Amino acid sequence: MTNTVLVIGGGPAGLEASRGVSDLGNPVILVEKNAFLGGNPIAERYAMLTGPVFRDAEEAMQDLIKPVTDDSNIKVHLSSTVTALDGELGNFTATITSESGTTESVTVGSVIIATGFKHFDPGYTSGAQQHWGYYEQPDVLTLTDLEKMLKDKNVVKPSNGKVPERVCFIQCVGSRDRQLGNQWCSKVCCGIACKQAIEIRELLPDTRVFIFYIDLRAYGFWEDELYWRAQEQHNVNFVKGVATEVIKRGDKLVVKGEDTTMSRPMEVEMDIVVLSVGMEPSQGTLDMANMLHLPLEDHGYIKTIGGPLNTTQTERPGVFAVGAAVGPADLEDSISSAGAAAMKAVSALRKLKLSAVAGD
Ligand SMILES: Cc1cc2nc3c(=O)[nH]c(=O)nc-3n(C[C@H](O)[C@H](O)[C@H](O)COP(=O)(O)OP(=O)(O)OC[C@H]3O[C@@H](n4cnc5c(N)ncnc54)[C@H](O)[C@@H]3O)c2cc1C
Ligand code: SF4
What we know:
This protein is of the alpha/beta class. The protein folds into two domains: about 5-115 and about 280-355, FAD/NAD(P)-binding domain; about 120-280, FAD/NAD(P)-binding domain. The chain has helices at about 10-25, 40-45, 55-70, 145-150, 190-205, 220-235, 285-290, 330-355, and strands spanning about 5-10, 30, 50, 55, 75, 80-90, 90-100, 105-110, 110-115, 115-120, 140, 165-175, 210-215, 235-250, 250-260, 265-270, 270-275, 280, 320. The strands form five sheets. The chain has a seven-stranded mixed β-sheet. Flavin-adenine dinucleotide binds near residues 117, 147, 188 and 323.
């Protein structure tokens, strides 16, 4: 039996899980597919993270990355993934394969999967009623495209390099959509749209910003720090309506849909349209579920078996799943579930050891 815990995925959840396990005194092997740690906030170059207070994303992520890279109890494998895992609680054998093809076999006692999410691809319209023109119109962006522009403090119309007069966000793109089969709320996109709207208004005070939403879901403290702040302090316009089509007219984009408050068709001209794309399980999450024979829950994320009372235990003893690998999650959710999994991964091994000593 070994005390080592394997963590797969070095995003916010995997980093916090690694730190938690190490703080409890167990060695950690952390395997990350990218050549760097930090998950989507680093890979997609987020500008600010909100929680709900704004913080430079790179700086905030360093608070998670540094304790891991400074800790000699945590061995990090970058540009690598786990290609096989056999055995049982206390004695799993994992094969770690690097991008260059080298393999290493390690023995670990328990496993935490933190392989996260991918952003919905708005070019995927099969089965959908919406026509957003993402791949056809350069001025149609996603939240992540805009994050990169905000990070560079350079928000311009990609088609002509000019400062936009009017920018709008279309909410629930790829989420809450039964025709697509994505029957979940992605939880963060309302708050992120409000955050980005505030950042645009601060950067470009003459640019008007609109958010088209079905319901605005800014839960907990995100309500006043993001939603009310966007509206009251930054004059962001919130329009309850369903946008179904984006077309080009001259050098403008036209958003067509329905203003549901007024129950009338809507047609508005914009310079930039931002699609608030939701979350889907990442390919890595699906691959790990497949390799470990873990069932998925009804929406396609890794299934955990304890409901709200145990959010991290999978059907396989000794294997836990956290963060956005188990469903749409913000940073707070991801960090909280990572802490819980660290505790459970270590306690499962301690209980096994105690029962072995007691001769059970
Ligand atoms: C545009 C946008 C902005 C956001 N801004 C905020 C915000 O301001 N505040 C907030 O609270 N939340 C925000 N979020 C949500 C936040 O990004 C997530 O909560 C968080 O990234 C989830 O962390 P995670 O570690 O579970 O997953 P991820 O960030 O997806 O990390 C998963 C990691 O696992 C790795 N991986 C995947 N497959 C494998 C594999 N097979 N082997 C090894 N490694 C693998 C990936 O490379 C990645 O590093 C935002 C989301 C979006 C879309
Ligand atoms: S958070 Fe907002 S935009 Fe995202 S899916 Fe939920 S309601 Fe739609």
